[in-house]
Amino acid sequence: MNSELNIRSKRKDQHVKHALSQKIDGDSDFNHVHLIHQSLPAVNLDTVNLNACFGEFEFQSPIYINAMTGGSEWTKSINRKLAEVAAAVKIPMAVGSMHAAIKDDSVIDSFKIVREKNPDGIIFANVGADVSPADACYAVELLQADGLQIHINAPQELIMPEGDRDFKNWRENIIETKKAVKVPVIVKEVGFGMSKETIQTLVQAGIKYIDVSGKGGTNFAEIENRRRFGQDMNFLFNWGQSTVVSLIESKPFQNDSFILASGGVTSPLDAVKSIALGANAVGISKAVLEKIQTDGVEGTVRYIEQFIVHMKKISVMVSAENIQQLQKTPVVLSAEIESWKRQRNL
Ligand SMILES: Cc1cc2nc3c(=O)[nH]c(=O)nc-3n(C[C@H](O)[C@H](O)[C@H](O)COP(=O)(O)O)c2cc1C
């Protein structure tokens, strides 16, 4: 194993280890969003259909396993299990950053296992915004991926001592990559959320699929800080916009793009609230990772099946029969979120 690969593999294992031990504390912004209970639902549970059809995608359920693993022996085994779950419950799945596989053939199988275990499923490749269009095409080809996620993670890079320091070319590279790949491109954050300015820039760059991946769940400021061994940057622990705030920031662009929500989604109620704020589908990382570790493939399959049933039950309680109706269901926001909305002219 070459030394760069060794660093990447170790880093990925550390990310998983730290993410698993990370305590998510504080008040989730999902608690600041209220759905309205309807006492006379106009729908029955078995007529609720939560198929998510948007743009070029058709998901049987509006949730997906978001990018996490691959690039080491340990994360190969996690990818295998996640792919078995995704295949069983028929939800899309993204792999973690494929930089390691692009640089070194010896870890390709830690990503390819996902396609092997889920030959007919929807799978997303994942690269960073600095990866060349040719390498991004290669990543897609390796998995016969149905979509390409490009992650944008400037705070994470800046906190990592070994991280990137140059960001000016990301926008241009994303545009060139979108032109080069033959599958839909999803630009995603990694848990710091997005602003309306970022979303506008992406929409103007021709990006149709945007995963706001907000603050409130996995916290890479904290994870990278723990990896810095004493060079403390913990003043950044609260950096970014929550998923709720990011979805509100995305409002002006929800007709011109397909917004996806992730970041701190831990319950079916969080997922339904995300859709009520305009998301087309909802990504989950940490909660699924934890489940796989504690309850294995079968337990995680049950967890996701229940998650979807519970989303349907909540749909009944707000009297919505499908995603389109859920997206229109009214919400009431706390004074704090309402103040953000006002100050940002949203
Ligand atoms: C262990 C771990 C590794 C991750 N690696 C990647 C990655 O390689 N690429 C990426 O785009 N996002 C990565 N993420 C970020 C997730 O895709 C997601 O945006 C973020 O964790 C917020 O979702 P959560 O709160 O449900 O975990 C990773 C998350 C975790 C927990």
3D structure, described in words:
It is found in: Cytoplasm. Keywords: Cytoplasm, Flavoprotein, FMN, Isomerase, Isoprene biosynthesis, Magnesium, Metal-binding, NADP. This is Isopentenyl-diphosphate delta-isomerase. 46% of the residues lie in helices and 13% in strands. The protein is α/β, with parallel strands linked by helices and 346 residues long. The strands form 3 sheets. Strands 4-11-10-9-8-7-6-5 form an 8-stranded parallel sheet. The protein is globular and about 65 Å long. It starts with a helix and ends with a helix. The mean pLDDT is 96. The site of flavin mononucleotide has 26 residues, from helix 1, strand 7 and helix 12.
Structural features:
alpha/beta; 8-stranded parallel sheet; 46% helix; 13% strand; 12 strands; 14 helices; binds flavin mononucleotide; two-stranded antiparallel ribbon; 346 residues; TIM Barrel
What Rg do the Cα atoms give?
19 Å
Beta-strand percentage? 5-15%
CATH architecture: Alpha-Beta Barrel
Classified in CATH, the superfamily is Aldolase class I
Helix content: 40-55%
Overall structural class, as computed from helix and strand content, comes to alpha/beta
Present as ligands are:
flavin mononucleotide
The outline comes out as: globular
In total, how many domains does the architecture comprise? 1
Number of H- or I-type helical stretches: 14
What is the overall pLDDT average?
Answer: 96
What is the first-to-last residue Cα distance?
50 Å
- Following the backbone from N to C, one meets helices and strands in this order, namely HEEEEHEHHEHEHHEHEHHEHEHHEH
CATH topology description: TIM Barrel
What is the CATH class name? Answer: Alpha Beta
Largest sheet: 8 strands, parallel
How many distinct beta strands?
12
Low-confidence stretches: none
For the biggest β-sheet, the strand order reads 4-11-10-9-8-7-6-5
